[in-house]
Amino acid sequence: MRIIFKSLKxxxxxxxxxxxxxxxxxxIETVGSKLSYLFDIVAFSILLRKDLDLHIYCDESTSxxxxxxxxxxxxxxxxxxxGEQLPTNQICTHVQRGRFESRGMGSSSGRLKSHIxxxxxxxGKVLGCTSLSSDHTNAFDAQALQFFSLITYQMASSxxxxxxxxxxxxxxxxxxxxxxxxxRYINQVLEAxxxxxxxxxxxxxxxxxxxxxxxxxxxxxxxxxxxxxxIHIASLLKGALRKxxxxxxxxxxxxIIVLPKAMMKDAVVIAERxxxxxxxxxxxxxxxxxxxxxxxxxxxIPVVWPESKEELIKYADTALYEAKGKGRNRVCFYVPTSxxxxxxxxxx
Amino acid sequence: xxSKKTNVNVDLIDLYSSLLNEIWGKVSELIGESLLxxxxxxxxxRTPDKSLILRRIAVSEAGISLETVRNQCxxxxxxxxxxxxxGFTKNLFNVFTAITENVINRELFSTVLPKLRExxxxxxx
Lengths: 348, 125
Description:
The complex is a heterodimer of chains A (348) and B (125).
Chain A: H1 2-18, H2 28-38, E1 43-48, E2 53-59, H3 64-82, E3 92-98, E4 114-122, E5 125-134, H4 142-173, H5 183-200, E6 204-211, H6 214-221, H7 223-240, E7 246-251, E8 254-260, H8 264-280, E9 294-301, H9 309-325, E10 331-333
Parallel strand pairs in A: 2-3, 9-10
Antiparallel strand pairs in A: 1-2, 1-5, 4-5, 6-8, 6-9, 7-8
Chain B: H1 2-31, H2 33-46, H3 52-55, E1 58-60, E2 63-65, H4 67-72, H5 78-100, H6 103-124
Antiparallel strand pairs in B: 1-2
Helix pairs in contact in B: 1-2, 1-5, 1-6, 2-5, 5-6
């Protein structure tokens, strides 16, 4: 009775560890070390189908031979469960070693004698598999399997919850069509960059980009083609930026680019690169090639001294309208007509 | 003659139905219903020569049922019914072995083997 109670206590702590803030397999060490109190194991492993990541947590004295056998068996099981030939050369194996208290002293350099695996399942789909490995023959009995299946269910449900959370996070910051950041997120970024620019006294530029005659594209080719045009431009924008620049869909056919530490001249170079790239790359794959152009407006600190992000955007928008007014497919930048009386609150 | 064949078929299907329900009861206690459902569907899917009989096995988290097999395969030759269900049972054991070595099978042998022998006797009669 006392033994069962102890086992249940350990089981409870394992389930708590699985559902802790740190997600599996990042907390494999915590879970793995607790498992060693419940099972006669030398290694515990998780193989994830999506990322082809194999995580093995084993006793510190485990031989490489044993680790290799665990890896081979776990991959074999997942191959069996999915019916897919896994690209074994692409599987990335992460081995962590720790002290398995329950094993006491001495080396466990023996061969793999027992290995059980269970699939991690979400609505009939195999997410991966998890395994227990021992250097003892018949190391697992019916009760061990009951406990292990309970643990596996918890792992699968924790992984599913974290996937849902991650996709919700993505939805909150990404534009679902173009996969660029959305307006809400870029507003936060711009706010932070503006604050940083003010504190560190560094330049900051933004570019507003608008697809020329986008309504005509929609009217002539239909909304699906219009959507493809937005995706096409988004991809060209991403390709034209520096590593730390951030681009977002601002709404409709309008995009915004935040260029930290970029002076006006740097922003002009990038904007012109974008303009040329769009002009030279028609939208292909449709019935006929669709030639697109963009107009771009730039506002840069320290040419302007905005008191808020809205003001900086307004300056870039003014420049964008100027580009439209001058015939489109061009870059314009905002220059204040008279110098401000003060440097503004952001930089001074 | 035809009616005798039908009765024997029903007896055989009932025997396998009881066998599979026993497997369901024991294994679901060990690994849970949804995992077992997955493994049974996997077994059906992996059986190379899926006969109509296998396609009529119903499985869900509520259990396994041969009701449709019973209703629709009464005129199927007895040997075919036996071969399909015996093959399915063996394949299911192979799936259990592939993932849990002998842990599940050890729990099943005592009840499953006598029923498989009984089915074979029914065929040889």
